Amino acid sequence: MQATDNLADSRYARMRWNTPLSEEHAALLLRRLDVRPGARVLDLGCGWGELLLRAVAAGGVSGALATRGVGVDTDDAALARGRRAAAGRSLDRHVAFVMGEAAAWQEPADRVLCVGSAHAFGGTGAALDALATVVRPGGRLLFGDTYWERPPTPDTEQIFGPEVTDLPGLVEVARERGWRVLHLSTADQREWDDFESTWLAGRQEWLLRYPEDPRAADVRAELDDRLRQYVGGYRGVLGLAYLVLGR
Ligand SMILES: C[S@@+](CC[C@H](N)C(=O)[O-])C[C@H]1O[C@@H](n2cnc3c(N)ncnc32)[C@H](O)[C@@H]1O
């Protein structure tokens, strides 16, 4: 059986968002982000913008005080998925998905999201400095970033880079850059396992469906490597912290 061109589409197909996060945890973060009616919401490195859409909906989109949002990313397919989702929820007049470099965006907003995208700015410290210029005074930033839950092996450290620190270190980087921590929570093991599983699941299903496809051997090897790296390397070692920050 030959696959059509749906291998690319299958990559993120099983993911609600591209970060280890349960529905319940997302709802908590959005409450702590406290989006007010009429707010401007900006998501830098938004992917398909599921959290952005929920943040805008939480602020309310009716009447003169309609909340508006902008998501910025460099992934065309993700942006297209975001636009389809916005249209499906009648949010397309309120949320724009823009192709662009996160670090080049300059228009400030009341609520800013940057989840799993600090690398788009060159790392944690550079991201927290740049984001300070796009959060309006009195505004809030939802910042999701990695940290070491336990000391990594040298191989694991090499995958994620030398800038990742432990959780106290991450909090200190934010504090040194003038941010106050209004909320802190971390992804738990089940959120991580679900994230890693759903990241693989779209292509696992594709493989089961198209085992004879010429691309199947490469895809199988890639998925096997990633699962090995996770269970044998960074599972329980790499953490993801969600900070709601103000300044
Ligand atoms: C781990 S994903 C997180 C996506 C989204 N924040 C979420 O939680 O679902 C990181 C995102 O950063 C985007 N990205 C990477 N480099 C970028 C850049 N230079 N400018 C804008 N977005 C970038 C990727 O395309 C990807 O969508």
TrEMBL record:
Taxonomic superkingdom: Bacteria
Keywords associated with the record: Methyltransferase, Transferase
Pfam families reported in the protein's UniProt record: CMAS
Annotated CDD domains: AdoMet_MTases (cd02440)
SUPFAM superfamilies: S-adenosyl-L-methionine-dependent methyltransferases (SSF53335)
Annotated GO biological process: methylation
GO molecular function, one term: methyltransferase activity
Name of the featured protein: Cyclopropane fatty-acyl-phospholipid synthase-like methyltransferase
